[in-house]
Amino acid sequence: METKLLSDHAEDLLEAAELLRNGAVVGMPTETVYGLAADARNPEAVRQIFAAKGRPADNPLIVHIAEMRALEQVAATVPPLAEKLAERFWPGPLTMILPKRKEIPEITSGGLDTVGIRMPSHPVARALIQLSGVPIAAPSANISGYPSPTTAQHVMRDMQGKIAAVVDGGACSVGVESTVIALEPNGTVRILRPGFVTKEMLEEVAPEVTLDPAILHQLQEGQTVRSPGMKYQHYSPRAHVILVEGSWQNFAALAEQNRADGVYALVFDGEETMLSLPCLTYGRSGREQAQQIFSKLRELDDDGAQKVYVRAPKPEGIGLAVYNRLIRAAGFEVIQV
């Protein structure tokens, strides 16, 4: 098929909403990354998402809603703590895993009896959901395992000929996928995937917040995938990514020792002038790094990089989300210097 590039103007949004109602897949902007949107209750539409991405079927999808009353159409029960978290963080980049209603098919929930739900803050995403009149399943709009897309052009590159349309809503403001949390029976909030909503922010609402070990470590064989981004190698460019922890001086020494054709460094702003090998930068603060990391990983491929040494961010605050994406992009290959 020919993938149509649509604007965020009213007539194009109406066209995109009609495509969604009719079971098609549409690239949709959100504040985090672009998503592949389809009717979450339509198994055939959701199958098209998996086919377009080449995504493993046991990897659950997140369902997007545009208003609180739609939560009851997706979740079987909503605990009081979930209501408090929604009041504080929705609309925004927080996904809550809740028991699902029977209307949500197993292909959407990855075979689980729970489903991840969030209310995006991007005005185009919310308009599309409201105009379509259906809850929207929307994983990141990239080929499975490749860096997530943060512009409509990224989506067009990955999905041309595979989906009906892409709505161009501009560059994503957050740049990494939503924080995913599970609400444990004892009232603890467990972070399954870190994002813009940090542990410290959640602690302002929840009595206890913990980090799932899978954030920084590989899942063991046979462990259940409770959230997108937990099990498989993700976010990887074609280049071989190596994450490097340690001082700038030791990082620079390592990079220079390994200088060769096709070897690049991905460093913090201002450090690129101190290396002789080709460099890209991805900001200094956690917020800047989150906004830039996926586009920079894609740019490395465009530049022909074959091996990339990446300066590890501090795994705290929003930096934890960036570190989580990079350790998976590197296939958990980390060098301490």
List its salient traits.
337 residues, alpha/beta, DHBP synthase, Rossmann fold, 2 domains, eleven-stranded mixed β-sheet, five-stranded parallel β-sheet, 11 helices, 30% helix
Describe this structure in words.
- This protein is an alpha/beta fold and 337 residues long.
- It folds into two domains: 4-215, DHBP synthase, CATH 3.90.870; 240-336, Threonylcarbamoyl-AMP synthase, C-terminal domain (Rossmann fold, 3-Layer(aba) Sandwich).
- The chain has helices spanning 10-21, 43-53, 71-74, 80-89, 106-109, 123-132, 152-159, 199-202, 248-257, 286-302, 319-329; strands at 4-6, 26-28, 35-39, 62-64, 94-99, 114-118, 136-137, 165-167, 179-183, 189-193, 209-211, 240-245, 263-267, 279-281, 307-311, 334-336.
- The strands form two sheets. Strands 1-8-2-3-7-4-6-5-9-10-11 form an eleven-stranded mixed β-sheet, sandwiched between helices. The chain has a five-stranded parallel β-sheet with strand order 14-13-15-12-16, sandwiched between helices.
- α1 (10-21) packs across α6 (123-132).
Number of domains: 2
Order of helices and strands: EHEEHEHHEHEHEHEEEHEEHEEHEHE
Give the low-pLDDT segments. Answer: none
In one word, what is the shape?
A: globular
Strand order of the largest sheet: 1-8-2-3-7-4-6-5-9-10-11
CATH architecture identity of the largest domain:
Alpha-Beta Complex
Write down how many β-strands occur, each being a DSSP E stretch of 2 or more residues. 16
CATH fold topology of the largest domain: DHBP synthase
Count up the helices: 11
* CATH class (first level) name of the largest domain: Alpha Beta
* Sheet of most strands: 11 strands, mixed
| Separation of the first and last Cα atoms | 49 Å
Q: Overall pLDDT, averaged? A: 95
Tell me the CATH superfamily of the largest domain: DHBP synthase
Residue fraction in strands: 15-25%
Computed over alpha carbons, the radius of gyration is: 20 Å
Helix/strand structural class: alpha/beta
> What percentage of residues falls in helices of 4 or more residues?
25-40%
Domain YrdC-like: 10-197
Keywords: ATP-binding, Cytoplasm, Nucleotide-binding, Nucleotidyltransferase, Transferase, tRNA processing
Binding site for L-threonine: 32, 64, 138, 178
Protein name: Threonylcarbamoyl-AMP synthase
